[in-house]
Every structure is written in C-alpha cells, then in structure tokens.
Write a structure and sequence with these properties.
Bound molecules: ligand V47
Order of helices and strands: HHHEEHEHEHHEHHEHEHEHHEHHEE
Structural class: alpha/beta
CATH architecture: Alpha-Beta Barrel
CATH superfamily: Aldolase class I
CATH topology: TIM Barrel
Distance between the termini: 37 Å
Strand order of the largest sheet: 9-1-10-11
Strand content: 5-15%
Number of helices: 15
Number of strands: 11
Helix content: 40-55%
Shape: globular
Oligomer: single chain
Length: 357
C-alpha cells in the first residue's frame, strides 16, 4: 500500500497488479484518502449534480440480457413503446422543472427503424434547442447500425445532425467477450462498444462510460475493464465521466446472485478514481447506490451524484428501493452534509450554478 500511495502522490499511473492489490486490500481508509486526494485535484471541493429527465422509449428488447429486469418481449404484460408524440410529451412535461438534459436510453426494439429515433431527437431538439440531448448507449448505436446497414460513423452523424449532443455510458457491462456471451450474448461486443465511443469522440461528441459489476466477473475482469477505458481515453479522449453500476439482481436471470456490499461499492468508486487518472469525473449514481452510500462515496473519490432523473425505470425494475426521482434541493442538502460545495452542471460539466453557503 505504501508504494502505491507514493505513486499516487507523485502522479504516477497505477498498474493492473496494483489495481488488483487495491481490491484485495481491506485498508479502506487509506484507499479513501488516496482517492479523495485525486478527486480534490480534479474538482476541489465541488460535487456536481444536474437537473435532468430520463426517458426510456420502450422496454421491448430482442437482446434480453441476463442481468436486466427491464426488457420485455413484445407480447409480455407491461411491454410498452412510446410513440414519437408520447416521447415528445414525456420530455416536454419536464421542461418547466428547469431540466437542462434529456437522458434517453431504451431497449433494442426489434421493429423500430432508425427514423423513429431520429424523429424523437429532432422533435425535442427543435422545440427545446437549449436542452442537451444525451441519448443512446453504444449498444443501442450498434443495434442501429445493424437495423440500418450503416456504419457507426454514419449513424452517429445522422443523430448528431438531428440534435444528439452526447452519448451516455451504458451497455459497457464488462468488456470481456467470453463473459458477455454469458450475460448479454445478443448485443454489442467489447470492440464494437469501444469503437462507437472512439468514433463519437472523433466526431467531437463527449461520452460517458460505465462498468456493471457484482455479477459473474472477477476482480481481474473489473481492472481489465478499467484499463480498456483508460487506454481508449488516452488514444481518443472524450469520456467525461465514469459511472460504476452495481448489479441489482431482483427479477433478472441472475437473481441468485447477492447484491454487492457497501464496502465493494465504495472500493469500486475509489479504485476507479485511482485507475482512471485520465477521466475527470466519477459519478456515484444515487439511484443505484442509495443516497447514504452515494453520499459516503464522496469521501472516496466520487465527485458527482448524477441528477434529478424524475422517473427512473431500468433500475426500479431490478428492485432498487431508492425513489424514482429527487428534487434539486434534496441533492444540494446531501452534498452539503458531506462538506462539499454543490454545483449544478450541464451534461458536459460546464458550471451552471454554485451553491456556496
Ligand atoms: O447498460 C441494466 C445497467 C445501464 C441492471 O451515462 C443494470 O450518465 C444494475 O448506463 N443492475 C443503463 N445495472 C444505465 C446507464 C446509465 C445510468 C446513469 C447515468 C448514465 C450516464 C448511464 O444500466 C445498462 C446496464 O449496464 N443495468 N440492468 C441491473 N439489473
């Protein structure tokens, strides 16, 4: 631990073996101290949040990943698909709440063509040009290439022209193909996921990245995943935030697996902060971690709690017990109680308002 601490203090990069060592260590406080130091270098005493609305266009999905409780077959009870008009209204009704972002992710619908998605983006963008549209995980973009026969670059350019501004970080799961064959065999491969972000960055789009952990993967797989993200960021920078997503097992094909512990969640936040020295923000997504663990993770390297969300569906299908949304005032309180300055940001981390007391 001492030699790792020295390296962190000197700004040197940690290796695969050091990452694995940190996961195996029980010295949570030293880990926290190092990660907090890194967080302070990147964002000082600020902790970010944003005011956004999640929109999940459909839950009808041909991929039916083992870890997902949200996806449905078309004829299943509870299956839904928003029309373009319904999606537009769903977004529009949140505008009076002062949202600055539409966060749109969906399922891999077997029948809807690319035009459906383009139309929703352009309707929202034309009506609300100042609201940032962050939409479609790389797994969805790969799906769009398959249904349209277009290359990732062409799909992204069409979406960009319609008003898409950035990509969320979903669909990464664990970037290891033999594991993906077990948990998500019908969607983008590791290289396809990476390629979409590589191309998006080259087109000038900012994106996020995630890691779904706590299912069938090993500690080594987690570290290898982080290293792949770090490598892509070196080669083609554009990731703004990393979001570790603890696996929520209820109602999934992996229901026998126990939910990750708070210690694992906190360690994962801290280790990602230390390994991903070239990604500025680590997000503790409060919906998944729960507000108490998300708040404590601010002392372990996280510098963002994500947003107001308003109505979250994917994680709630998997039994998460947090609320479906939260007010801006509540987010400000949670951040202040941890001793940090709450900062409202836009999607790409421009500062909109500081709440200094
Ligand atoms: O790709 C699905 C994950 C992701 C479960 O970019 C699950 O700012 C845990 O990526 N247990 C979608 N995780 C959500 C996502 C996201 C969320 C918040 C912010 C951002 C961002 C991105 O959710 C999926 C998958 O990895 N997921 N089911 C589950 N049962």
């Amino acid at each position: 631990m001492e030699s790792i601490a020295d390296k962190v203090l000197q700004g040197q990069r940690l290796t695969r073996e050091e990452g694995i060592f940190l996961y195996r260590s029980h010295d949570l406080l030293t880990l926290g101290e190092l990660a907090r130091r890194q967080k302070k270098e990147k964002s000082g005493s600020y902790v970010f949040f944003n005011v956004n609305r999640h929109i999940n266009l459909s839950n009808v999905c041909h991929a039916r990943c083992q870890f997902c409780a949200f996806g449905r077959d078309q004829e299943d009870p509870g299956a839904y698909l928003m029309t373009v008009e319904e999606a537009f209204q769903f977004g529009a009704e949140a505008v009076p709440f002062g949202i600055t972002e539409f966060h749109i992710v969906s399922a891999l619908h077997p029948d809807m063509g690319l035009d459906y998605y383009l139309e929703i983006i352009s309707r929202l963008h034309e009506a609300f040009p100042s609201i940032h549209i962050q939409a479609f995980s790389a797994a969805e973009i790969v799906h769009f290439t398959r249904i349209s026969g277009l290359a990732p670059e062409e799909v992204l350019k069409k979406l960009q022209a319609a008003g898409l501004a950035s990509l969320p970080g979903g669909g990464a799961e664990i970037l290891k193909d033999d594991l993906r064959q077990k948990i998500c065999p019908n969607k983008a491969s590791s290289e396809e996921w990476l390629e979409v972000h590589r191309v998006a960055h080259k087109l000038g789009m900012k994106t996020n990245c995630t890691m779904l952990y706590g299912h069938l993967e090993s500690i080594e797989d987690r570290i290898d995943h982080l290293l792949q993200l770090r490598r892509l960021q070196d080669e083609s920078p554009g990731f703004k935030a990393f979001i570790p997503l603890p696996f929520l097992p209820d109602n999934t094909g992996l229901e026998h697996i126990r939910r990750t512990s708070a210690v694992d969640d906190i360690k994962t936040i801290a280790i990602s902060r230390l390994m991903l020295d070239n990604i500025d923000h680590v997000k503790a997504f409060w919906i998944m971690l729960g507000l108490p663990v998300a708040q404590i993770s601010l002392e372990f390297g996280a510098d963002d709690l994500d947003g107001t969300v308003i109505e979250e569906r994917i994680m709630h299908a998997a039994g998460v017990e947090t609320k479906k949304g939260i007010t801006q005032d509540e987010l400000i309180q949670w951040i202040r109680q941890a001793g940090y300055i709450p900062v409202e940001r836009d999607t790409v981390y421009n500062i909109l308002q500081k709440y200094e007391s």
